[in-house]
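Note to self: keep these together.
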Amino acid sequence: RSTLFPYTTLFRSKPNYVVMICGVSDRQNIREKDLAKENDDKAAKNPANEGQPKKEGESDAPQAIIAPEPQPAKKSNGIIEFRSDQWEKVYSRRIDETVAALKSKGVPVFWVGLPSIRGTRSTADAVYLNDLYRARAEKAGAVYVDVWDGFVDEAGKFTSYGPDYEGQMRRLRAGDGVYFTKYGSRRLARYVDREIGRYMNNRGPIA
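Structure:
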């Protein structure tokens, strides 16, 4: 269960690269009280101007207090609906924060897109999320790995079957139309391995 990412933890060891894939469980609303708590946690970790030296000419005298404009109270049980403009804004920010956390290891980051999912609505949701992942990852300098073509038929629709890494027709997806069989997992891994190899080869020899 994701929705999403401020709680990302990184390896203590030094990786050569980081691969990220998620999103199937992120097709849900975001609760406003969870978002408020997240913002409070960030503010507690980064108090504004705490311990900052005074600017030249700044007085120690107390400053006049200007009362803020009253803001309408938000319902604690309010929700931000999946695929709404506000949801997209919040989720995009979380993607950015996650990529930044992953890049803090100082190694290449590969963000793997979602495959097609059985069902018209589920497939549309996957396309929507992939558009966000691709745009935010590429903007942040991560490599987006597109696996879509590996799990659709010639008409571009979801299929449970396809060729494995040896070209034999196999069942690639589990019965729920979401998760992978052993052969499907290997097919997914081939896409990721290919992009990692391509990236590393383009970087030239590593000392």
